[in-house]
Design goal:
Layout lengths: L1 H15 L2 H18 L1 H97 L1
């Protein structure tokens, strides 16, 4: 009976306990993956590493130099634009001041014309009084 119980236990563990089979399958899959795919992945990584090193050695210095030149050009253009903007602002300020001066000049001309009219009127009054006194 012990043998039967042992056999039934073995059969039960084989039918219901899949851990040993699964772990064996996992080991097999990992081994196959590492053998077949591992070399391909390492070659791909090595190629990528070479490309990055070449880019750092060849492209980076030339790009840095070109970028430095472009930034210098941009800086010069910005300074020129800033200078032009300052000149435009100065002209605008002068125009505003000239507008004020022109308004003052117009007022002075009007005052002068009014003064001349007043002088003409006073002259005519004096001439009338003189004509009455003389004549």
């Amino acid at each position: 009976m012990e043998k039967v119980a042992k056999d039934v236990g073995d059969i039960q563990s084989r039918l219901l306990d899949h851990r040993p089979v699964i772990s064996a399958e996992v080991r097999y899959f990992v081994r196959e993956f590492e053998e077949k795919r591992g070399l391909r992945e390492s070659r791909l990584l090595e190629n990528l590493n070479k490309m990055v090193q070449e880019a750092n050695e060849q492209m980076l210095p030339s790009n840095l130099e070109e970028m430095s030149q472009k930034l210098s050009d941009i800086s010069k253009r910005l300074e020129a634009a800033n200078h032009m903007a300052e000149r435009v602002q100065q002209r605008e300020l002068e125009a505003q001041q000239n507008t004020g001066l022109q308004a003052n000049m117009e007022k002075l001309k009007e005052d002068w014309a009014e003064f001349l009219k007043e002088q003409q009127r006073l002259k005519e009054e004096v001439d009338e009084e003189h004509a009455k006194a003389v004549g």
